[in-house]
Amino acid sequence: MTRHTRLVMSMIYWAFVLYIFVPLILMITMGFKDSKFIGFPIRSWTLDWYVEVFKDSEVLSAFGYSMLIGVSSTLISLVVGIWIAVLLNGRGFIGKGLIYGLTLLPALIPGIISAISFRIYAQLWGIPPGTGAIIWCHAVHNVPFVMLIVAARLSTLPKSHLDAAQDLGADPIIAFLRVTLPYLRPALIGGGIFCMLISFDDFVRSFFLGGYQPTLPVLIFAKLRSGMSPEINAIATVVLVLTGLLGIWAERTTRRMKQGKLQS
């Protein structure tokens, strides 16, 4: 690679970094503005908007509701995703490709189409809009991501480990619980955090299948109807910080687990 090519690639990289981070920095900055309107110049700074976020019962309720939906749908996605990944990791059988394609389908369908389809399907089965419908929809959408992450980790599992467990008298279920499942732990943590963030951030499906209790993205959308304000920036900044800390925790935990296995 020539010097000119490296320079061009470096410029493209930093342009991309600015494209990503400048809007985030502006969003965070506007949350400190001592005014009800978004825009420059900022003549005075305040923490009042952030204080109001933690005092607003509506925001806290929506945050807790989104967490409930995210955790519930993630747990369901992990169970179903592991089951499908283990099934597809076995010997070839008739219909294996069909099952694989159908599992990936929810991740490929556009969000608005998926939300409308689930709304019609829920009405057909008499499922009322609300918590159960949202969890069900989010779980189905997240299963493909869990399956792919777990399947990638599962493909690196040495077959000798399972053979050794079976030679010691372990049946397939015990071998899975004591050998396969611990080996999949980094993938489960990564997949779980990924699904949690997707579910927490999902607006379209939550909007179409939600009831009277709004999730946090739906609440932010409702507040946007009256115009942008530093309050919305403060809410978004808090969510950004929390999700960033969650991602850092997941990355460090996964790295620590991998280093522990290498040392052992």
From TrEMBL:
<dbReference type="InterPro" id="IPR035906">
    <property type="entry name" value="MetI-like_sf"/>
</dbReference>
<keyword id="KW-0472">Membrane</keyword>
<keyword id="KW-0813">Transport</keyword>
<feature type="transmembrane region" description="Helical">
    <location>
        <begin position="62"/>
        <end position="86"/>
    </location>
</feature>
<feature type="domain" description="ABC transmembrane type-1">
    <location>
        <begin position="63"/>
        <end position="250"/>
    </location>
</feature>
<feature type="transmembrane region" description="Helical">
    <location>
        <begin position="98"/>
        <end position="121"/>
    </location>
</feature>
<keyword id="KW-1133">Transmembrane helix</keyword>
<feature type="transmembrane region" description="Helical">
    <location>
        <begin position="187"/>
        <end position="212"/>
    </location>
</feature>
<dbReference type="InterPro" id="IPR051789">
    <property type="entry name" value="Bact_Polyamine_Transport"/>
</dbReference>
<keyword id="KW-0812">Transmembrane</keyword>
<comment type="similarity">
    <text>Belongs to the binding-protein-dependent transport system permease family. CysTW subfamily.</text>
</comment>
<feature type="transmembrane region" description="Helical">
    <location>
        <begin position="232"/>
        <end position="250"/>
    </location>
</feature>
<dbReference type="GO" id="GO:0055085">
    <property type="term" value="P:transmembrane transport"/>
</dbReference>
<dbReference type="InterPro" id="IPR000515">
    <property type="entry name" value="MetI-like"/>
</dbReference>
<keyword id="KW-1003">Cell membrane</keyword>
<dbReference type="GO" id="GO:0005886">
    <property type="term" value="C:plasma membrane"/>
</dbReference>
<feature type="transmembrane region" description="Helical">
    <location>
        <begin position="12"/>
        <end position="32"/>
    </location>
</feature>
<feature type="transmembrane region" description="Helical">
    <location>
        <begin position="133"/>
        <end position="152"/>
    </location>
</feature>
<protein>
    <submittedName>
        <fullName>Spermidine/putrescine transport system permease protein</fullName>
    </submittedName>
</protein>
<dbReference type="Pfam" id="PF00528">
    <property type="entry name" value="BPD_transp_1"/>
</dbReference>
